[in-house]
Amino acid sequence: MLDGLTQARGLLFVVSGPSGSGKDTVLEEVEKFFPNLWRCVTTTTRARREGEPEGSYSFVSEAEFRCLVDSDQLLEHAVVHGNYYGTPRKPVLDQLDEGRDVVLKIDVQGAASVKRAMPDAIMIFIVPPSFAVLEQRLRGRGTDPEDVVQRRLADARGEVSLASSYDYIVCNDHVADAADRLRSIIVAEHCKVVR
Amino acid sequence: MLDGLTQARGLLFVVSGPSGSGKDTVLEEVEKFFPNLWRCVTTTTRARREGEPEGSYSFVSEAEFRCLVDSDQLLEHAVVHGNYYGTPRKPVLDQLDEGRDVVLKIDVQGAASVKRAMPDAIMIFIVPPSFAVLEQRLRGRGTDPEDVVQRRLADARGEVSLASSYDYIVCNDHVADAADRLRSIIVAEHCKVVR
Lengths: 195, 195
Prior knowledge:
alpha/beta, Rossmann fold
């Protein structure tokens, strides 16, 4: 009765947030609700962290990364903390065309590039409830030396100042509540009227 | 850490949908999740239906209604099926100022007036999954004579054609699913970044 008023194509959700904001945990919770949601695997030159699952990133060498950039196979790419990160173009477009929602978990620079390339992207910024909590989480992780923790905290201040360019802000005070907010955004966006 | 980026004032949700779309049932479900959500009681000159709870509308005479209109106490008013319906202005503004969300359940004419008066209003249209289901529900209610059912069906076609001017469309296929969609819209709107 309302054909064409809501989106049939998949929706593209871009999720950013400082290191330690809990993006991954929140996304894992949300994915339980949407078996059809496709999370794009980011390509990176950074070293795999101890205990990090193999599929969490596509780990490549700098030479391989340059090749992907030169052959225009990346939707966006950026340098974060001295490492390259990029989003493969083709799989994202294919999933959207097939009507499947796509989630890109990317940093603020990459997010801005995606928004320029795909203006319909829905931009979501996940924040910890406070900088004090963020510091606590980064130290609690115990994987990074002090100078890395300090750099991540400084970066976080810069990133949070860009949150106002996003469409939504999800406060990750409690994982279940943050996941419910993100889930709600996805459900609501599917009810939006297409102009 | 993000003061001023999300709305502190209450949000105004305008909910419309044809007779028989199940607006009331869906709203009742959603209200269970948000004890702070304030549903504005519409003022009307129409007769109270058998079994209809007293507080569902503020029932007034035509003379009383005219007095409210003349003294500018209504945010909007409209004639639907030959009866007057109106939204009292002051209680709505007071609740929003106090940071409480407000829901107005009003017809498409009234909704358009509210949107003009309050451009930040979030417009939600509830639809039955099909006209066949709508007809079934209107007859099932058993309260309206045949000519009223026919008029409501004709009106529904006109109203649904205006759905594209709303922000969101909620399909009421199953009450629990429709309530989850409406609830999600409310949660998501609270995560929206204020421009």
